[in-house]
Design a protein that fits this description.
heterodimer, A: about 140 residues, alpha+beta, four-stranded antiparallel β-sheet, two-stranded antiparallel sheet, 5 helices, about 30% helix, about 25% strand, globular, B: about 375 residues, alpha/beta, six-stranded mixed β-sheet, 11 helices, 19 strands
Amino acid sequence: MACYVKFAVSGPDIVCEEFDGELVVLDLKTGCYFSFNRSASAIWDLLTAGIAPAVIEEALGQAVSPLVDNLVEHNLLVALDEPGERQLDGAVLASLRSVQDAPVVEAFDDLADLIRADPVHEVDEAAGWPHQKEAVSF
Amino acid sequence: MASSERGCLILSPVRKVGRKDLASFARDALAFARSLDDARLTRRRLRLHGLDLDLIVADPAYALACERVYAIDPLAGAPQPGLRLTVLDGENVPDMPRCVWSDSVIGGGPVRDALEADNLAGVYDPERDLWQFHDPETGEGVQLMPTVDTPPPWEASVPLRLFLHWAMHGIGRPLVHAGTVGLDGDCVFLAGAGGSGKSGTTLCGILDGLVSVGDDYVLADVTAEGVTARPLVKIMKQDREGLQRLGVDPGDPCLQGPNWQGKLEFEFDRLCPGSGARALSGQAILLPSVTGGERTSARQATAKEAMMALAPSSFAQLFGAWRADLSFLAEFCRRLPVWRVDLGTDPAEVAGFLRGFLAGSRP
């Protein structure tokens, strides 16, 4: 089903850098980072500019909903409660036509353990988390 | 612990802290450090490359560890930006502030967020109950740890690394996780994960008469004029096999260790006199890999590939300033040409490749 909803970057913890048309995106909250190929980067730019996915699909002639689902699943994008833009200007259309490869986003989570928030168990106030009660304290 | 050695001690009360009041605790800890009587502490003023470090430690061994490793700038003239850094342990300073986390979850993210909200930086190592707080506005930092032997074994390689990274960010010269090899004032950066060949390639180069500012962490700044690398530490490390492969006798009196990794450490300017440079102009980023090929070969790569090689290890080992790190590393990678290098097996051939590359004969 065609999606005409507007999407946006999910928050200020999503930061990205562009390298010759390709993006590296880092989620500061989770520590996950992502490598976008040129096609995925172009689509990301349109989505975050408020263009509705269905409009991008029409212009590209290929489905972008799997990519959108993936970006939402990784909490990089959120759907807003408003309709997306339905117009693409000429420059954007020309840019989209240069997109030839399938969009690919590689996800990396090797940094996630560094900032993951874990539940606190068995706190001994003299020792501090995460020592067990019998831990030696000074 | 301390109580059995020192008799009666007055311990500070343990404060419960969470996201809402961690920054307040951090500021109290910084104020406590500021108020301490110097007579209880060991003080060193160290002129690093771009930063005057005022190091105040409760355990004198910590000062020695820093002096053993840090690269001092012999030409530092006028006063530089400063970092007043106090390292306290519960054995020597039992009345130091102590806290226990009281929220239902803890982790690097919640601690970072709580401090950032009050314009502070910091981390907590829950395995060791070690806190680090830095106030970039006042240029002060404090480390709180239960005992003198709290720090992890890798701390000796670059003591107080995160404080230096945070403070150096303030002057636009943060740490970059890369090796360097130079010639005639220029250098290439060697980037990649552990085992990619950064240290071995750096040592290979300086044994052949090239220069360096470090093989692991270096200081880098990106300006309109270009990218400049400077030393943070004067020590390099290598395992016995690597040393022998490069023709270095593991019994050489310059070598110390083994360290926590089983590697031998050495002041590289002592092992190879004249190899230690004060500053080098970056010309390229090389992404080395050990492939076992007969000859060294190189092919052009992209800034994004350099970023993906640098970012994981930099982010993992230089925690607490990821937003600034991403921005800095991106600019660093965009400013320099990038090459993937498959290292040959003959050290003389690898050194020749580096020398030729630096002299301008690119593949």
